[in-house]
């Protein structure tokens, strides 16, 4: 059953989470204006699954069940799946800014791989439990929040060394029928309007901190769960051309001795596999982030072009304006290309699914994380200073000033001043407001900070293969037949694939 | 008479400007909460002039009168003056974010040069009028707003080609006792809480558009003046650790047939000298901007270091954190160095004052304009994602969540969670809020956009001197005595100074 | 018939071109030491076609003939073909530095498209002639040089305005049996050791300059052809660890009234299609350049890792060294990813072949063009200063110093000093010598300068599609069903493909 | 006595050093063609001291003796001295590429400070010895080489842990009349044509490695000294427009049990002061490097402008060409500005001299080290691809090709082709040849690698002062009087100066 946006909103009424926003208890998430932009943004992922023209990318056939599911809940089986997921994320984020639900996809895929690996290593039965759970989620077309980033406390100390043990979510008790977990996850995207949380470890823990290596599913209104969240976007702000409609909430989620029954537990102390889960989730997630921020790039490119037009400028004649637009395009498409390459050179997991290539995935995320600032700069460059000088929207209806202002604040004569002000406020909303700041910081730190990506790139890159290449050139020169050069036949691609990619005729 | 901050605020009561903010008429600028952060920020420049430890940089002896005046109103006569002004601007902006009043300095210095030049070319008597006016301003210790950026309309058309002639402020009538001006200035920093405006042309106009080449002084409450402004900073926002106290308003100023008597007119149609005025003001202003944004850099550096500490990290051991701090320092101090070099290699104007070297001044402004985005990135990098995930300040007093949150949101055990949250919100305020966005855009476009700086750099750089150097090496090689190499003896510095700089023993 | 490297070298003896290198006539190209590194580098493309492990990428089935041909001579029919060509170019260039022969591929594919288009527009029969010619080339397994970049003379003038008409190759006479061409091509890669030249226009010409819109095939030893070339690599230089073996010659080719029979003429005055040919060639070529420079990146990565090891450093412990290696990897793989994406999102040409996506192809080339300098910087960073301080190889055999030097110039005790010196000289060869300089400049300007790429990116990017997106968000908001948002169903990818890419299961 | 260039060359005949270049013993350094470009480059510093127009910057009054000395041998006493030294270095390097002799200045100033400090701490009498020595050097107008960079062996090990103890120069014996030193310095600039070497430690050593903390002066022909050097520049290469005349040799210097009498020993085991010496030398040297590379920038700017002209382009009309030139200027002048600021905000040493500000000095060096690559890129960008495609100079006299080539290889009609080729070869020489590579690597690693600069920036920056500023804003807000904000009155400049800089009227 594929819900639509209205159905998704209604479905939230079945949950009674304990949610606070701006210091007040939220009675009904589905009806809370401060959260509406977030509900709208997730809603896009439901709505587009019903659009015939988007069906190919927005839905997929789940191999383990044969059912058609929303792309945001699908386990990838092919390069094409990854490419479609990438395109789907870009599609929903270019409309909503950030549709958030791709995190559900990333977690499901990460856990799918990790449960199989854990079972293989420890003889556990997590994979079966998880598959059953996931099928239920797919059938009900739910949205799951990722509760991963622990509060962490003192960054220089391990969990067991923290003054407050609740800085990390951990298992406090193991019962015959399940486990008790306790602690705080500090940054949970979209927390209030999720159906459930997937609790996951945020790093590789040592054996002593094994209690923190826990993965499980918890409904948002389970006993003991408290959500302290920010408003989503800029609800009710008249100047918010975009983020009054679409936005993202971020929440702190406190687990105060929450009971989780066994059929919802997917990892419980296997700390090495917990580390693997962190990495496999991160790889999927960084791949998704690439699509998401490319969608944001689409918004900036379109808005920038409109602003240039309204200002009466022509990129063909004003080289420096074209230059800035080309920079914006180059940044967006070059990190997107890393997502495409990561899809093409994916690796097969023993669980039966595919994982995006880790090097390309991390490079793409690293680029978007650091270059989002350049995207803002380029957007500001082509827009001019008006975006921070324009009087606010209340002024639009001030009879004492409205006529004068709209007479002089227009640009090109054939474009109404209102349209110029509108696009000016859109760019302000996307890049100058706290929503704009959110896009920056979430790009930089969401899914891991740049240092984490650099470590993954280094860890996964086939450096030794390059060393072999150079040694063969140095030590022996290259033989006339050249064939002795490469010790690894077939490794013509450089990112870890074992056979050349096969791509069908277009 | 040097006013202090309280005196400045009181002095505003003597003016009755027609001001609108957020669609409503402001009754008393001095008492308007939405403008208070702006009044506070300008107030710092008054207050510091009374601090003995800052007297050397915050006050100066005005050569034309022999009186001690606020540095923000002084005409520079030496390299040392320029250096002190640069330091003064950094000093007041590191406390207030942006103290705005340095624009008064920049305009006074630009007009001082331009009036002399105009008189020399046209036999006018602007210089004397202006000197008398400026002495009155210095005596009363006023703050003058710079009304320069016209609304502009269609960017591809000249003023005379605009559908609406009021897109540019222009002279509509010349009377025996003065002139009538009309039109709109779109971006006037601090407009509501200025004492007067200095109207200036924003570009070099052609002879046909000579009516736009007008420079004059207009009290903020002159008949026909309307100010439509934004709030200054983030007044009343609990999360605004800094910009609830200090901020900047930006206003649109409409001149609706405003009469200006002759003794306040400093240019009236001399379009070539209008172009010179635009440039000389811009050169002073870009030099000042360097000091201002270095002060902003000081805030980010200090806040970043505090955040790192609160997170329990140590730059000595975490190389990537130190790297980001060094990047922040390097950006800040390398554009500041351009301000220093611009002071050292200043040029003497026939009017008797000095002008910062144009190449270094424009390079410094160009660097800060584009690198402000990297400063934000570095600040975000060292701070972590908490700055956008932290629940708002209303939550601090929510009895249902406060205890749990403060227990887990702390970092290093010996630093209270409140302190960590406080610095986190400060960084959010400075870099993620709309105030942060304002700093970015005003850095990029304030004082001219990057393309304008590049053109000035190219126009002022002694390229031919370098061509001569290379030609002498190519055509003749270098003679044994080497002395024939340089055709311009003494031009060992490369930025247009005619004699080597003389700097006294420290 | 697929030749091997030895066969290729022998095949050159059948040609008697008029070649000058360093002011002297070359008697036999196949035996000339100054050209040997170039012959070796091209030889790698022949040799690898016989290696079973490389067969999938180094050979392909030519659709128009059904024959197996060298990948460097193949007309691409699928995304997979483009991806294999990209991998093949990387493979041969990582061994040879730059194997040059991919230019043949790029020109054949460009002309294949252009001749069909010209025939469609003008009713000519170029396509048939070209197909016959190309099949002969494939059968004989030839290497064709691209004679495209005209001497150009004064850059600000068109061909017809030049003081010397020979600044551009042009048709001087049309005969019943063929044409006469005259003029100079200034930068022809590998000129002396090609079998034939493909003459092509280097820009879109106006109708007046139609005589310059000429494309034809000319054997290197046709009457009237003179080649003035540089040595290939650094032949005979003892310090040249790599480029004494593999290198590239660049030649000026003078066409002094050369007769070309009709069956070798593929464009003769159709100036609009000449512009298309320039662009289609450039798009293929920029795609190939991506693979080539990624191969160069492989060499630097491997050499850098070896140097770090020899110096006794460990990237795990020395964060700044790892950082530089990650930068080198990130640059290389991010422009390579653009080549992959360009392959995936290829477009189908009416001629029956595919063309790499122009946006991704140009972005990839733009990135490598500007970032090759950063690659050198990173390689130098990890290597240390020794690479420019090490005494030359003659010193290795100086009995008076050899023992002392090798005793102290070693690094890690378990790695012989000789090995350290060897890799140090390799990096010097690749990045500090004139060969290193060649890699920089050819990356920057080869296949068009950065400005040309920026114009192509702008011209091909679907900006209006983004404008539509933003307008739909602004004007109408997004409807609940979301489907009205995109006016172009299926355009979820953003680079001009009309249907989503289809990629087979890996 | 100030020598001139000819006198300097003659003075080398009085020394008989054991020098090998390219595996052969050099009989007479003064007459060796392979070293002539190096002798010429140093000669410029002698010659310019006699040019009246350069006297102010090229000579100075030595405070300790009252004599006029060459600027390259002078102990700085004022900001103005530092500024003049900076200008002097730029002046001689813009003519010679790199005049090398400023290293003598940097070492003399570093040792001047360190000997005083050592005496104060240990009651030694190094300062007096050194002063006497230095006066002799000034009187004889010598050039001293800096023998600092040890061979180092395994980078991860200390000197005492090395397999070969000679990896670091160290004291092997202390005699009543002096010391014996042994070991290898791996990178000594200009080694063969120096009069003496100043041996200095290259890092801060531990007490165990105290024997490596040695500073002394050794004539180049002292018994036991062997120099194995590279040719200076590109002597005898016809294509080397510049570096056949001016160049730099780099040598390995082997000290094989060399005796140094006490009056030439300035540090002998005081390891802490050895660390100070390393740093103080480095600070002076990085300041000088800024001037040197700015001179190189002058050459590129002039050559680029000439090439643009010869190509028939006009930066006014071709925006992307102007953009690249502005980038080249911006890079050069922004790091030069750091040198200026470092001079202005210098610190006074107890020894009576001044030291450039460490933060600005290190930032300037860091910028030039990493941006030299961008300078090459910009120079290549404006020059076009011809610089690597142009046939070699032997072709200029080939009667069979000369006429044709010069007819077509010209650019603008009114500029002879020869002039275009000449400037093209100049740019090739400066940026594409191994000389160009040398400039890159020596900029990156000379005077310490970027990581060393970053550590110095961090170590010297007044971070705590910024922390205090922010804490005062956070904890207490800013009081109305503002004066309580800064805990450090007068610290308005941010780089460690204790009083505001005083600069005299220009």
Instruction: Give me the oligomer status.
Output: homotetramer
Radius of gyration computed on alpha carbons of chain A: 24 Å
State the helicity of chain A in percent bands: 40-55%
DSSP summary: helix tally of chain A: 15
Structural shape of chain A: globular
Class computed from helices, strands and strand pairing of chain A: alpha+beta
Please outline the major beta sheet of chain A.
7 strands, mixed
Low-confidence regions of chain A: 476-506
Instruction: Report strand % of chain A.
Output: 5-15%
- Number of strand elements of chain A: 15
- End-to-end separation of chain A in angstroms reads 32 Å
Which chain pair has the greatest contact? A-C, 101 and 103 residues
H-E order of chain A: HEEHHEEHHHEEEEEEEEEHHEEHHHHHHH
User: Average pLDDT of chain A, to the nearest integer?
Assistant: 92
């Amino acid at each position: 059953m594929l819900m639509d946006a209205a159905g998704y909103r209604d479905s939230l009424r079945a949950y009674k989470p304990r949610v606070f926003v701006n210091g007040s208890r939220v009675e009904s998430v589905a009806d809370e204006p401060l959260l509406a932009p977030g509900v709208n943004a997730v809603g896009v992922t439901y709505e587009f699954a019903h659009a015939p023209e988007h069906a190919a990318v927005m839905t997929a056939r789940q191999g383990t069940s044969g059912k058609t599911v929303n792309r945001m809940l699908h386990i990838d089986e092919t390069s094409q799946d990854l490419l479609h997921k990438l395109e789907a994320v870009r599609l929903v984020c270019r409309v909503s800014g950030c549709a958030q639900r791709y995190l559900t996809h990333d977690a499901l895929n990460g856990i799918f791989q990790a449960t199989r690996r854990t079972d293989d290593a420890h003889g556990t039965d997590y994979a079966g439990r998880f598959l059953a759970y996931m099928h239920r989620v797919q059938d009900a077309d739910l949205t799951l929040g990722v509760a991963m980033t622990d509060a962490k406390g003192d960054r220089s100390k391990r969990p067991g060394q923290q003054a407050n043990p609740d800085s990390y979510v951990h298992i406090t008790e193991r019962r015959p029928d399940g486990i008790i977990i306790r602690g705080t996850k500090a940054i949970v995207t979209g927390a209030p309007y999720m159906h459930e949380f997937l609790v996951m470890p945020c790093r590789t823990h040592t054996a002593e901190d094994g209690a923190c290596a826990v993965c499980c599913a918890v409904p948002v209104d389970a006993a003991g769960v408290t959500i302290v969240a920010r408003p989503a976007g800029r609800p009710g702000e008249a100047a918010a051309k975009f983020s009054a409609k679409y936005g993202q909430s971020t929440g702190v989620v406190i687990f105060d001795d929450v009971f989780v029954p066994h059929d919802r537990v997917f990892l419980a102390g296997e700390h090495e596999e917990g580390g693997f889960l962190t990495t496999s989730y991160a790889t999927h997630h960084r791949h998704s982030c690439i699509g998401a921020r490319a969608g944001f790039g689409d918004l900036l490119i379109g808005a920038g072009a409109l602003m240039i037009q309204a200002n009466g400028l022509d990129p063909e004649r004003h080289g420096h304006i074209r230059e800035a637009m080309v920079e914006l395009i180059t940044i967006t498409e070059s990190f997107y290309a890393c997502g495409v390459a990561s899809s093409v050179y994916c690796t097969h997991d023993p669980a039966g699914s595919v994982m995006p290539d880790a090097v390309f995935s991390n490079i793409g995320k690293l680029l978007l994380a650091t270059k989002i600032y350049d995207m803002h700069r380029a957007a500001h460059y082509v827009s001019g200073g008006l975006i921070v000088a324009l009087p606010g929207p209340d002024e639009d209806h001030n009879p004492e000033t409205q006529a004068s202002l709209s007479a002089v604040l227009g640009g090109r004569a054939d474009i109404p001043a209102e349209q110029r002000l509108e696009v000016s406020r859109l760019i302000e909303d996307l890049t100058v407001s706290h929503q704009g700041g959110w896009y920056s910081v979430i790009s930089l730190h969401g899914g891991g900070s740049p240092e984490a990506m650099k470590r993954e790139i280094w860890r996964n890159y086939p450096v030794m293969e390059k060393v072999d290449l150079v040694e063969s050139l140095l030590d022996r020169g290259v033989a006339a037949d050249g064939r002795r050069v490469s010790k690894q036949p077939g490794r013509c691609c450089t990112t870890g694939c074992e056979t050349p990619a096969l791509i069908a005729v277009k």
